[in-house]
Amino acid sequence: MSTPRGRGKLDRSVGVQAMEVGLELLRPLVAARTPLNLKTLSKDAGFSPPKAHRYLVSMIRSGLVEQDDQTGRYALGPLGVELGLTALGMLDPDRIGRSALVDLRVETDHTTSLIVWGTGGPTVAAVEPSFSAGAYFMALRVGSILSLMRSASGHIFLAYLPRRTVWPLLEKECRALKARTDGIGAIISETRRRGYSAVTDALVPGVRAISVPVFDHEGHLTYALTCFGQTGSFNTSADGPLLKMVLARARAVSARLGFTDCTIHAETNAAS
Q1: CA 169/CA 92 separation, integer angstroms
Q2: Is residue 103 assigned to a domain?
Q3: What's the CATH code of the domain at 154?
Q4: Domain shared by 46 and 111, yes or no
Q5: Domain shared by 147 and 98, yes or no
Q6: pTM of the entire structure?
Q7: Could you tell me the sign of the dihedral formed by the alpha carbons of 100, 103, 107, 110, in that order?
Q8: Which pLDDT score is estimated for 87?
């Protein structure tokens, strides 16, 4: 029985090769984030200039690319911009984050969690526990609120959310713990410098955690990917494989959400 049109699984063995080849010209335009001349564009795409020009003519006709009449440089056209904006609007950050959480748990063999900012502070939105031999299971519950001062995830929100957002809850926590905010500036600076936070025995004795930020297309903090493990088997060193896996996964999710710039949004001024 034949599969009704539009309902079967996509057969990736068929397609139009010329389209696949031509669309490679869009990658340098997206990566550069600025108009490019033909020489640079063709070189970055691995095309000869005459070959690139032929494809660009068709893309200009379709609206994927446009050419400035004065400079001759190429940029994304109205259809290309519309496609990008539509794709961003269709993204589901929550689904993408939860999927990444599963992948990270499989890769690291440690309990992983998705931490979002809630009305009470850093809040556990999802947990992927690891029950394998040698792994340590930390009984996190969805909805649990983590410490800003003492958790790796809390440090991420301190570092990358605006001061006006985090400071009232930080001061409330300090009053409850009878602690001072004197050392918060150092925590924020160190977290920003490293691009992640790692803590040991801060919340639960014998437990370590690594937390890495995930950003959206505007550079705003979306959530934190956090990995937990037992101190003896959980290596948080900067050159260790575990940290590299967590960082790589968080960066991949950020890229999936449209984050391509290493400059974090200007409102992340919690240290000021």
Answers
A1: 28
A2: yes
A3: 3.30.450.40
A4: no
A5: yes
A6: 0.68
A7: positive
A8: 66
Does 4 fall in a domain?
no
The answer to whether residues 111 and 127 touch, using CB atoms and an 8 Å cutoff, is yes
pLDDT at 24: 83
CA distance 104 to 87: 25
50 and 176 in a single domain? The answer is no
Q: What is the CATH number of the domain that holds 72?
A: 1.10.10.10
Dist CA 150 CA 128 (whole Å): 22
State the CB neighbour count (10 A cutoff) for residue 260.
Answer: 13
Residue 103 shares a structural domain with residue 83: no
DSSP string computed for 81-100: HHHHHHHHHH--HHHHHHHH
Please state which of the ranges 92-106, 115-129, 254-268 shows the lowest mean pLDDT. 254-268
CA distance 263 to 170: 25
Q: Give the torsion through C-alpha atoms of 267, 217, 236, 161, to 10 deg.
A: 20
pLDDT averaged over the chain? 82
Contacts of residues 22-29 at CB distance under 8 Å and 24 or more positions apart, as own/partner, are: 22/55, 22/58, 22/59, 25/52, 25/55, 25/56, 25/59, 25/65, 26/59, 26/64, 26/65, 26/76, 26/80, 29/65, 29/74, 29/75, 29/76, 29/80
For residues 175, 179, 181, 187, the Cα torsion angle rounded to the nearest 10 degrees is: -130
Q: Kindly report, residue by residue over 117-175, the tens digit of the pLDDT.
A: 998 999 999 999 887 644 555 667 888 899 999 999 999 999 999 999 999 999 999 88
- Are residues 234 and 166 part of one domain? yes
142 inside domain = yes
- Tokens 């929550």 correspond to 94
Q: In this structure, is residue 67 part of a structural domain? A: yes
Domain boundaries, position 61: 17-90
Both tokens of 182, joined, read 């004197």
Q: pLDDT at position 198, please?
A: 92
The confidence score (pLDDT) of residue 192 equals: 94
